[in-house]
Specification:
Elements lengths: L9 E7 L2 H14 L5 E5 L6 H11 L14 E6 L2 E7 L7 H5 L2 H7 E6 L12 E8 L6 E8 L1 H5 L6
Parallel strand pairs: 2-5, 2-6, 4-5
Antiparallel strand pairs: 1-7, 3-4, 6-7
Length: about 160
C-alpha cells in the first residue's frame, strides 16, 4: 500500500488466525518502529492487546519478561530504539492521570505502546499507529484494523501479513 497524501490516514484491516499471527504482525510493525513512535492498542477485554504489546516489545530486542501493566499502569524497557514505555490506561479515571505517570516524558524521550487509548479522551499524539483488535467468531481469530497517522501514515502500512 503506498503512502497516503499528507493529512490523510492510512488504513488496513487484517484477519489474524491465532496468537502466533498476532505476534507476527506485532513483530512486523516493530521492525518499522522508530524513536518517538506511539502505538495505541484498543479493543475489548480479552482481545489480545497485552499479547500484541508483549510481541511488539520483544521484537524491539527486549529480553525481559513483559508483564501486563494493569496494576502498575506503566512499565519501561530499554531497547535499541531507546526507552519503550508500555502503558495500560484501563484503570484511569481522567486523562490527566496519564500525564502524572509519565506520558509526557514517554512522548518526549522514547517510544510508547498504549493500551486503552480511549482513556485519553482525544488527547492522543497526532503521530501514531492505532491498532484496534476485535474478537472474531472464529475461535482464536482476531480482526485487526490499523490506522496510521502522521509519521506512521507516511510509512504506508506496507508490511507482510
Amino acid at each position: 500500500m503506498p503512502a497516503t497524501p499528507e493529512g490523510a490516514t492510512a488504513h488496513r484491516s487484517i484477519v489474524l488466525a491465532d496468537e502466533a499471527a498476532t505476534a507476527a504482525l506485532a513483530a512486523a510493525l516493530a521492525r518499522q518502529a522508530r524513536p518517538g513512535d506511539v502505538v495505541t492498542l484498543a479493543g475489548p477485554l480479552g482481545a489480545g492487546k497485552t499479547s500484541f504489546a508483549r510481541a511488539f516489545i520483544a521484537a524491539l530486542g527486549v529480553k525481559d519478561e513483559v508483564p501486563s501493566p494493569t496494576f502498575t499502569l506503566v512499565q519501561t524497557y530499554e531497547a535499541a530504539i531507546g526507552t519503550v514505555w508500555h502503558f495500560d490506561l484501563y484503570r484511569l479515571t481522567s486523562p490527566d492521570e496519564a500525564y502524572e505517570i509519565g506520558l509526557d516524558e514517554a512522548l518526549d524521550d522514547g517510544a510508547a505502546v498504549i493500551e486503552w487509548p480511549e482513556r485519553l479522551a482525544g488527547r492522543l499524539p497526532a503521530d501514531r499507529l492505532d491498532v484496534d483488535i476485535a474478537l472474531s467468531h472464529e475461535g482464536e481469530a482476531r480482526e485487526v484494523r490499523l490506522a496510521g497517522h502522521g509519521a506512521w501514515n507516511e510509512r504506508g502500512l506496507d508490511f507482510g501479513s
